């Protein structure tokens, strides 16, 4: 294909895309308008299932299947990172040197680790009531653990982080999501249909059917995935060194 | 539109523009200080927005920023400490001024909220924000001098 | 008047994102990126999407800087080892 032809092809494709986008923009409802056809229906459905946070209802009830896809994307991405960043044959590990961190920083880290873990759990558990959910809370909890590296050294973090257990938890929580979905099939409804559990009292921790359970599964998956991901990055940055070729 | 949102707009515009200027110009040492002060300047704005919209649930955003913002600064302080060696970046006057603004916002919101669980949450956010910022500033000005390679 | 707030947040995000692209050094880019994350979270809050804002804060405040800075450290260490071996 000649250069000129390629440019023509690009121009035609670009013009088509621009035309379609312009047509779509002209049909958009006005910014901040009063009429939201999809929003009204989503809110009605989430109120019927006693879920106070409509976003949680959309993510884990009305479109739980999409969330399963997002979850497997994260799982596959972390798996890819683990394969890419593993210790190769021409690399070896060096013990990281212990670090001396100023005392106030170390104390702050030790104080904030439990606070951040509790905060992460709070965000996961209140996913169906207020903004937040499994993803946000899981990331917070996993980040909190790495304050041990920042406030002390890598060996302190390694001591409280059994990597094998986190890898197993990662896989198990993806399975838990699938099993929760299959339970609906076994009960005679549909995959990931929120019909098995009672919907509970509106605006309490146990409301929303199986939304809190799916939130917990996603929270565990995200937390352990982030820990495994950061562990591989930290290994490469701190421990693994290339051997000299000859 | 109310006074709270107006205050949040002023805080966001002033603090945000200053943070952007600080983090995109000058030596690395100054940029790290600006990154640290961004947390301190924008967390009160998030609290003011939560109050202005009348949505107590939005306070969670400020909680998360107060918790994780200083952690982000610690990341830079630890992994850039070779670049910062001998510079001891600090701007204590500015740090205390921004911490004072944060404390003022938290106290004002506590006065409006009245005693209860919401007030405890606000106080926790205030303590995390101010404590975290002072510690992160301390870490920037030489908290990781004993770290070699690790 | 709440349009003014949206305008301020949008302008800050646009300016910071441009600045992040214009930086040359990855470490400095990471610094601008972490500030951009906070501005984005404020923008999402102003547009009444606190769930997205929380995700942005959780990822952008500490996790992304940590990943980028660890990669920068690995590359710098490798370069130093090579230079030292010569």
UniProtKB/TrEMBL annotation, chain A:
- UniProt cross-references to InterPro entries, sorted A to Z: CPA3_antiporter_subunitB (IPR050622), MnhB (IPR007182)
Q: Where is the Na+/H+ antiporter MnhB subunit-related protein domain?
A: 106-227
Q: What single Pfam family name could you report for this chain, choosing any that match?
A: MnhB
Q: Which compartment or compartments is the protein found in? A: Cell membrane
- Span-the-membrane segments of this chain are 71-88, 108-127, 133-150, 171-193, 213-234
Q: Which UniProt keywords apply?
A: Cell membrane, Membrane, Transmembrane, Transmembrane helix
Entry keyword annotation includes DNA-binding: no
Tell me which domain of life the UniProt entry assigns to the organism this sequence originates from: Bacteria
Q: What is the recorded membrane topology of this protein? A: Multi-pass membrane protein
Q: Can you supply one Gene Ontology CC term for this chain's record?
A: plasma membrane
Q: Which family does the entry's similarity section mention?
A: Belongs to the CPA3 antiporters (TC 2.A.63) subunit B family.
PANTHER family reported for this sequence: NA(+)/H(+) ANTIPORTER SUBUNIT B (PTHR33932), NA(+)_H(+) ANTIPORTER SUBUNIT B (PTHR33932:SF4)
The name on file for this protein is Sodium:proton antiporter
From TrEMBL, chain B:
Where exactly are the transmembrane stretches of this chain?
57-79, 91-112, 119-140
Q: How does it sit in the membrane?
A: Multi-pass membrane protein
**Primary localisation category:** membrane
Which cellular compartments is it found in?
Cell membrane
Keyword Lyase annotated: no
Listed InterPro entries: MrpF/PhaF-like (IPR007208)
The UniProt keyword set, sorted, is:
Cell membrane, Membrane, Transmembrane, Transmembrane helix
Q: Which GO terms describe its molecular function?
A: monoatomic ion transmembrane transporter activity
Coiled coil segments of this chain: none
Q: Kindly list the GO CC terms recorded for this protein.
A: plasma membrane
In Swiss-Prot or TrEMBL terms, this protein is called Membrane protein
Q: Which organism is it from?
A: Streptomyces griseofuscus
UniProtKB/TrEMBL annotation, chain C:
Q: Has UniProt tagged this entry with the keyword Acetylation?
A: no
On whether NAD is a keyword of this UniProt record, the answer is no
Q: Where in the cell is it found?
A: Cell membrane
Instruction: Give the CC-aspect GO terms.
Output: plasma membrane
Coiled-coil intervals in this record? none
Q: What InterPro entries would the database entry show?
A: MrpA_C/MbhD, Nuo/plastoQ_OxRdtase_6_NuoJ
Membrane topology label:
Multi-pass membrane protein
The record, for Gene3D superfamilies, names: NADH-ubiquinone/plastoquinone oxidoreductase chain 6, subunit NuoJ
Residue ranges of the MrpA C-terminal/MbhD domain?
Answer: 11-77
Transmembrane feature ranges? 29-47, 54-72
Q: Which UniProt keywords apply?
A: Cell membrane, Membrane, Signal, Transmembrane, Transmembrane helix
Give one Pfam family: MbhD
Cleaved signal peptide residues: 1-19
Q: What is this protein called?
A: DUF4040 domain-containing protein
- In its UniProt entry, the species of origin is given as Streptomyces griseofuscus
């Amino acid at each position: 294909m000649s250069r000129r032809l390629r440019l023509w092809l690009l121009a035609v494709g670009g013009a088509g895309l621009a035309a379609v986008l312009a047509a779509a923009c002209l049909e958009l409802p006005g910014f901040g308008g009063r009429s939201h056809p999809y929003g009204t229906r989503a809110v009605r459905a989430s109120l019927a299932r006693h879920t106070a946070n409509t976003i949680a209802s959309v993510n884990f009830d009305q479109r739980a299947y999409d969330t399963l896809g997002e979850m497997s994307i994260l799982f596959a991405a972390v798996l890819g990172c683990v394969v890419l960043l593993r210790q190769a044959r021409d690399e070896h590990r060096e013990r990281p040197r212990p670090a001396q961190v100023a005392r106030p920083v170390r104390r702050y880290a030790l104080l904030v680790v439990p606070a951040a873990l509790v905060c992460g759990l709070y965000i996961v558990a209140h996913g169906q009531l207020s903004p937040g959910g499994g993803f946000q809370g899981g990331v917070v909890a996993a980040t909190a653990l790495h304050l041990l590296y920042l406030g002390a050294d890598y060996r302190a973090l390694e001591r409280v982080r059994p990597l094998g257990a986190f890898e197993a938890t990662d896989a198990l929580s993806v399975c838990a999501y699938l099993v929760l979905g299959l339970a609906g099939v076994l009960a005679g409804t549909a995959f990931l249909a929120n019909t098995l559990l009672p919907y509970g009292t509106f605006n309490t921790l146990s409301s929303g059917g199986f939304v809190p359970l799916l939130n917990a599964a996603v929270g565990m998956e995200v937390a352990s995935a982030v820990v495994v991901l950061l562990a591989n990055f930290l290994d490469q940055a701190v421990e693994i060194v290339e051997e000299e070729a000859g | 539109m109310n006074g709270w949102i107006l205050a949040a707009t002023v805080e966001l515009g002033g603090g945000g523009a200053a943070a952007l200027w600080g983090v995109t110009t000058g030596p690395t040492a100054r940029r790290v200080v600006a990154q640290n002060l961004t947390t301190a300047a924008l967390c009160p704005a998030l609290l003011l927005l939560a109050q202005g919209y009348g949505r107590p649930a939005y306070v969670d955003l400020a909680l998360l920023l107060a918790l994780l913002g200083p952690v982000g600064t610690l990341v830079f302080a630890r992994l850039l400490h070779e670049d910062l060696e001998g510079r001891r970046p600090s701007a204590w006057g500015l740090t205390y001024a921004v911490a004072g603004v944060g404390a003022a916002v938290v106290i004002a919101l506590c006065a409006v909220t009245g005693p209860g669980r919401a007030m405890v949450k606000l106080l926790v956010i205030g303590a995390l924000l101010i404590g975290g910022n002072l510690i992160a500033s301390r870490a920037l000005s030489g908290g990781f001098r004993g770290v070699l390679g690790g | 008047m709440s349009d003014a707030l949206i305008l301020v947040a949008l302008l800050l995000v646009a300016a910071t994102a441009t600045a992040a692209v214009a930086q040359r050094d990855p470490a400095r880019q990471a610094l601008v990126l972490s500030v951009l994350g906070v501005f984005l979270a404020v923008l999402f809050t102003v547009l009444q999407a606190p769930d997205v804002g929380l995700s942005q804060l959780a990822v952008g405040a500490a996790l992304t800087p940590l990943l980028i800075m660890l990669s920068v450290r690995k590359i710098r260490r490798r370069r130093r080892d090579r230079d030292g071996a010569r």
